[in-house]
Write a structure and sequence with these properties.
Blueprint (H helix, E strand, L loop, with lengths): L4 E4 L2 H21 L8 H18 L1 E8 L2 E12 L10 E10 L8 H15 L5 E3 L6 H9 L15
Parallel strand pairs: 4-5
Antiparallel strand pairs: 1-2, 2-3, 3-4
Helix pairs in contact: 1-2
C-alpha cells in the first residue's frame, strides 16, 4: 500500500500538477460565490504568485504525494501586520494556499500541512499563523477550527458598476 509523503515543491517536476490543484481550488471557490478565474492558465499564474511570494518574503511550498502523484499542495510565507496588532503578532506566517485533490480529501492531509506550517513558524520564531477561507467553505473552516484557528477579521467586498 502506498503511503502519503510530504516534501518540498519542485518546480521542474511538480509545476503542472500544482497548477491543476490551483485550478481545482479556484473552481471550487468560484462555485461557492467567490470571483475566480478557473482556467488552467489562471492556476499557473496563481502558482507563479506563490513561488514569487515565498521567494521574496520567505516561506515554503510543500506537496503531498501518493504513488508518485501530487495530491496536495500548501504554500505559506511571512507577512507583516500593521501596528494595530500586538508586537508579537506583527509578523505572521500566512498560509496562502492549501488544497487537496478531491479524491483524497478527508484523509488528514490538510491537517498535516497545517502542522507543518506551524512547525515552520515556530522554528522561525513566529508566534502567529494566519489563513483565509472563502465564505461558504464550511469543510475547510471546520478543519481550521478543529486545529485551533479562530476568526480574527472578516473581509467583505462590493463590486461597483
Amino acid at each position: 500500500m502506498n503511503e502519503i509523503t510530504y516534501r518540498p515543491f519542485r518546480a521542474e517536476t511538480d509545476f503542472e500538477a500544482a497548477a491543476r490543484l490551483h485550478q481545482m481550488l479556484n473552481t471550487l471557490e468560484g462555485e461557492m460565490g467567490a470571483h475566480r478565474e478557473t482556467s488552467l492558465a489562471a492556476g499557473r499564474l496563481c502558482l507563479e504568485d506563490d513561488v514569487r511570494l515565498v521567494g521574496e518574503e520567505g516561506g515554503e511550498i510543500l506537496v503531498a504525494e501518493l504513488g508518485g502523484a501530487v495530491i496536495g499542495y500548501c504554500s505559506h510565507h511571512f507577512e507583516r501586520r500593521g501596528p494595530y496588532v500586538p508586537a508579537h503578532w506583527q509578523l505572521c506566517l500566512y498560509v496562502k494556499n492549501l488544497m487537496i485533490d478531491e479524491a483524497h480529501r478527508g484523509r488528514g492531509i490538510g491537517t498535516v500541512f497545517l502542522e507543518m506550517a506551524e512547525h515552520f513558524a515556530r522554528k522561525s520564531g513566529v508566534k502567529l499563523v494566519c489563513l483565509g477561507v472563502v465564505a461558504g467553505n464550511g469543510r475547510a473552516e471546520a478543519t481550521y477550527r478543529k486545529q485551533g484557528y479562530r476568526p480574527i477579521s472578516f473581509e467583505m467586498a462590493k463590486e461597483l458598476d
